[in-house]
Protein backbone atom coordinates (compact mmCIF):
# COMPACT_ATOMS: atom_id res chain seq x y z
CA UNK A 1 0.00 0.00 0.00
CA UNK A 2 1.41 3.39 -0.94
CA UNK A 3 2.11 6.18 1.46
CA UNK A 4 -0.58 8.23 -0.22
CA UNK A 5 -3.17 5.50 0.33
CA UNK A 6 -2.15 5.20 3.98
CA UNK A 7 -2.63 8.93 4.42
CA UNK A 8 -6.06 8.77 2.82
CA UNK A 9 -7.03 5.82 4.98
CA UNK A 10 -6.12 7.63 8.22
CA UNK A 11 -9.11 9.10 10.14
CA UNK A 12 -9.40 12.90 9.96
CA UNK A 13 -8.14 14.83 12.96
CA UNK A 14 -10.85 16.08 15.32
CA UNK A 15 -10.54 19.72 16.20
CA UNK A 16 -12.30 21.96 18.55
CA UNK A 17 -14.37 19.27 20.28
CA UNK A 18 -12.72 19.64 23.67
CA UNK A 19 -13.44 23.32 24.15
CA UNK A 20 -17.25 23.11 24.54
CA UNK A 21 -16.82 20.33 27.09
CA UNK A 22 -14.23 22.41 28.94
CA UNK A 23 -16.62 25.36 29.04
CA UNK A 24 -19.47 23.17 30.25
CA UNK A 25 -17.27 21.70 32.96
CA UNK A 26 -16.10 25.16 34.00
CA UNK A 27 -19.72 26.33 34.29
CA UNK A 28 -20.59 23.23 36.32
CA UNK A 29 -17.72 23.97 38.69
CA UNK A 30 -18.75 27.62 39.03
CA UNK A 31 -22.38 26.68 39.70
CA UNK A 32 -21.32 24.13 42.31
CA UNK A 33 -18.99 26.60 44.00
CA UNK A 34 -21.60 29.36 44.04
CA UNK A 35 -24.14 27.03 45.66
CA UNK A 36 -21.67 25.81 48.26
CA UNK A 37 -20.41 29.30 49.10
CA UNK A 38 -24.02 30.30 49.68
CA UNK A 39 -24.97 27.19 51.67
CA UNK A 40 -21.85 26.62 53.76
CA UNK A 41 -19.98 29.90 53.63
CA UNK A 42 -16.67 30.53 51.93
CA UNK A 43 -14.42 29.27 54.73
CA UNK A 44 -16.20 25.89 54.98
CA UNK A 45 -16.24 25.28 51.22
CA UNK A 46 -13.31 23.17 50.06
CA UNK A 47 -12.12 22.33 46.58
CA UNK A 48 -12.97 18.68 47.33
CA UNK A 49 -16.58 19.61 48.04
CA UNK A 50 -16.76 21.68 44.87
CA UNK A 51 -15.42 18.79 42.81
CA UNK A 52 -17.93 16.40 44.37
CA UNK A 53 -20.88 18.76 43.78
CA UNK A 54 -19.80 19.45 40.19
CA UNK A 55 -19.29 15.76 39.42
CA UNK A 56 -15.68 16.45 38.47
CA UNK A 57 -12.29 15.18 39.51
CA UNK A 58 -10.41 17.39 41.93
CA UNK A 59 -7.61 17.72 39.37
CA UNK A 60 -10.17 19.03 36.87
CA UNK A 61 -11.19 21.75 39.30
CA UNK A 62 -7.56 22.74 39.79
CA UNK A 63 -7.02 22.69 36.04
CA UNK A 64 -9.57 25.49 35.75
CA UNK A 65 -8.86 27.36 39.00
CA UNK A 66 -5.48 27.44 40.72
CA UNK A 67 -6.93 27.76 44.23
CA UNK A 68 -10.04 28.72 46.18
CA UNK A 69 -9.46 32.51 45.93
CA UNK A 70 -9.27 32.17 42.14
CA UNK A 71 -12.49 30.15 42.17
CA UNK A 72 -14.18 32.69 44.44
CA UNK A 73 -13.12 35.53 42.15
CA UNK A 74 -14.54 33.71 39.12
CA UNK A 75 -17.86 33.08 40.88
CA UNK A 76 -18.04 36.74 41.88
CA UNK A 77 -17.24 37.94 38.36
CA UNK A 78 -19.94 35.70 36.91
CA UNK A 79 -22.53 36.91 39.41
CA UNK A 80 -21.75 40.60 38.94
CA UNK A 81 -21.68 40.13 35.18
CA UNK A 82 -25.27 38.89 35.36
CA UNK A 83 -26.38 41.80 37.54
CA UNK A 84 -27.92 44.72 35.68
CA UNK A 85 -29.72 47.58 37.36
CA UNK A 86 -32.84 48.70 35.48
CA UNK A 87 -32.97 52.16 34.00
CA UNK A 88 -34.22 54.97 36.22
CA UNK A 89 -35.43 57.99 34.24
CA UNK A 90 -37.56 60.84 35.52
CA UNK A 91 -41.07 61.36 34.15
CA UNK A 92 -42.84 64.38 32.74
CA UNK A 93 -43.73 65.71 36.19
CA UNK A 94 -43.17 64.96 39.88
CA UNK A 95 -45.97 62.39 40.11
CA UNK A 96 -44.71 60.30 37.19
CA UNK A 97 -41.11 60.72 38.34
CA UNK A 98 -41.98 59.37 41.77
CA UNK A 99 -43.88 56.50 40.14
CA UNK A 100 -40.73 55.57 38.18
CA UNK A 101 -38.72 55.83 41.39
CA UNK A 102 -41.11 53.51 43.20
CA UNK A 103 -40.97 50.96 40.38
CA UNK A 104 -37.18 51.01 40.64
CA UNK A 105 -37.39 50.62 44.42
CA UNK A 106 -39.74 47.67 44.23
CA UNK A 107 -37.49 45.88 41.73
CA UNK A 108 -34.46 46.57 43.90
CA UNK A 109 -36.02 45.28 47.12
CA UNK A 110 -37.38 42.17 45.39
CA UNK A 111 -33.88 41.43 44.13
CA UNK A 112 -31.99 42.21 47.34
CA UNK A 113 -34.35 40.16 49.52
CA UNK A 114 -34.17 37.01 47.42
CA UNK A 115 -32.79 34.28 49.74
CA UNK A 116 -29.96 33.41 47.35
CA UNK A 117 -28.88 37.05 47.13
CA UNK A 118 -29.07 37.47 50.91
CA UNK A 119 -26.90 34.38 51.39
CA UNK A 120 -24.38 35.52 48.77
CA UNK A 121 -24.05 38.94 50.37
CA UNK A 122 -23.60 37.32 53.79
CA UNK A 123 -20.87 35.06 52.43
CA UNK A 124 -19.08 38.04 50.90
CA UNK A 125 -19.23 39.97 54.17
CA UNK A 126 -17.85 37.00 56.08
CA UNK A 127 -14.93 36.73 53.66
CA UNK A 128 -14.14 40.45 53.47
CA UNK A 129 -11.12 40.26 55.78
CA UNK A 130 -9.56 37.44 53.76
CA UNK A 131 -10.51 38.87 50.36
CA UNK A 132 -10.64 42.69 50.66
CA UNK A 133 -10.23 43.25 46.92
CA UNK A 134 -13.23 41.07 46.13
CA UNK A 135 -15.25 42.75 48.87
CA UNK A 136 -14.44 46.17 47.39
CA UNK A 137 -15.39 44.99 43.92
CA UNK A 138 -18.64 43.53 45.28
CA UNK A 139 -19.53 46.86 46.86
CA UNK A 140 -18.63 48.85 43.75
CA UNK A 141 -20.64 46.64 41.41
CA UNK A 142 -23.68 46.39 43.69
CA UNK A 143 -24.49 48.88 46.48
CA UNK A 144 -22.32 51.71 45.18
CA UNK A 145 -23.73 51.45 41.66
CA UNK A 146 -27.27 51.45 43.00
CA UNK A 147 -26.68 54.49 45.23
CA UNK A 148 -25.02 56.34 42.34
CA UNK A 149 -28.04 55.72 40.11
CA UNK A 150 -30.42 56.96 42.78
CA UNK A 151 -28.29 60.04 43.45
CA UNK A 152 -28.16 60.85 39.72
CA UNK A 153 -31.96 60.61 39.57
CA UNK A 154 -32.31 63.00 42.51
CA UNK A 155 -29.91 65.48 40.92
CA UNK A 156 -31.89 65.34 37.71
CA UNK A 157 -35.25 66.12 39.29
CA UNK A 158 -33.52 68.80 41.37
CA UNK A 159 -32.28 70.44 38.20
CA UNK A 160 -35.83 70.44 36.83
CA UNK A 161 -37.16 72.03 40.02
CA UNK A 162 -39.39 69.08 40.91
CA UNK A 163 -37.73 68.60 44.32
CA UNK A 164 -34.97 70.35 46.25
CA UNK A 165 -32.75 67.64 47.71
CA UNK A 166 -29.71 69.28 49.32
CA UNK A 167 -27.58 66.12 49.71
CA UNK A 168 -28.46 63.72 46.87
CA UNK A 169 -25.82 61.12 47.74
CA UNK A 170 -26.79 60.98 51.42
CA UNK A 171 -30.52 61.02 50.66
CA UNK A 172 -30.04 58.22 48.11
CA UNK A 173 -28.47 56.07 50.85
CA UNK A 174 -31.27 56.90 53.27
CA UNK A 175 -33.96 56.16 50.69
CA UNK A 176 -32.44 52.79 49.78
CA UNK A 177 -32.19 51.87 53.46
CA UNK A 178 -35.83 52.88 54.04
CA UNK A 179 -36.95 50.80 51.07
CA UNK A 180 -35.07 47.74 52.24
CA UNK A 181 -35.76 47.93 55.95
CA UNK A 182 -34.23 45.14 58.04
CA UNK A 183 -35.38 42.14 56.02
CA UNK A 184 -31.87 41.07 55.04
CA UNK A 185 -30.90 41.02 58.73
CA UNK A 186 -34.07 39.12 59.59
CA UNK A 187 -33.32 36.49 56.95
CA UNK A 188 -29.73 36.14 58.14
CA UNK A 189 -31.01 35.57 61.68
CA UNK A 190 -33.62 33.10 60.48
CA UNK A 191 -36.53 35.03 61.95
CA UNK A 192 -38.26 35.94 58.67
CA UNK A 193 -38.45 35.02 55.03
CA UNK A 194 -38.48 37.37 52.05
CA UNK A 195 -41.26 39.99 52.05
CA UNK A 196 -44.31 39.61 49.86
CA UNK A 197 -44.81 41.83 46.79
CA UNK A 198 -47.54 43.67 48.70
CA UNK A 199 -45.23 44.32 51.65
CA UNK A 200 -42.51 45.55 49.33
CA UNK A 201 -44.86 47.88 47.45
CA UNK A 202 -46.19 49.36 50.70
CA UNK A 203 -42.72 49.97 52.17
CA UNK A 204 -41.40 51.52 48.97
CA UNK A 205 -44.48 53.73 48.52
CA UNK A 206 -44.28 55.07 52.08
CA UNK A 207 -40.53 55.78 51.86
CA UNK A 208 -40.82 57.45 48.46
CA UNK A 209 -43.72 59.60 49.67
CA UNK A 210 -41.68 60.65 52.71
CA UNK A 211 -38.88 61.73 50.38
CA UNK A 212 -41.23 64.00 48.43
CA UNK A 213 -42.63 65.56 51.60
CA UNK A 214 -39.19 66.09 53.14
CA UNK A 215 -37.67 67.82 50.10
CA UNK A 216 -40.40 69.89 48.38
CA UNK A 217 -39.52 72.16 45.51
CA UNK A 218 -38.64 75.67 46.60
CA UNK A 219 -41.23 78.20 45.56
Biggest sheet, open or closed, and with what strands and sense? none
**Protein structure class:** mainly alpha
Q: In total, how many beta strands? A: 0
Residue stretches low in confidence (pLDDT < 50, at least 5 long) are 1-16
Query: What is the overall silhouette?
Result: elongated
Task: Kindly provide the radius of gyration, computed on alpha-carbon positions and rounded to a whole number of angstroms.
Answer: 25 Å
End-to-end gap = 99 Å
Helix content: over 70%
- Here the CATH topology of the largest domain equals Tetracycline Repressor, domain 2
**Could you say how many structural domains there are in total?**
2
SSE sequence, one letter per element: HHHHHHHHHHH
Textual characterization of the structure:
By secondary structure, the protein is an all-alpha fold. The protein folds into 2 domains: 64 residues, Homeodomain-like (Arc Repressor Mutant, subunit A, Orthogonal Bundle), CATH 1.10.10.60; 121 residues, Tetracycline Repressor, domain 2 (Orthogonal Bundle). Helices cover 72% and strands 0% of the residues. The protein has 11 helices and no strands. α6 packs across α11. It is elongated. The N terminus is likely disordered.
List keywords for this structure.
disordered N terminus, Arc Repressor Mutant, subunit A, elongated, 0% strand, Tetracycline Repressor, domain 2, 219 residues, single chain, mainly alpha, 2 domains
Q: Summarize this, please?
A:
By secondary structure, the chain is mainly alpha-helical. The protein has helices at 3-9, 18-40, 47-54, 58-64, 68-82, 94-112, 115-126, 132-159, 168-180, 183-189, 197-214. α2 packs across α3 (47-54), α3 packs across α4 and α8 (132-159) crosses α9 (168-180).
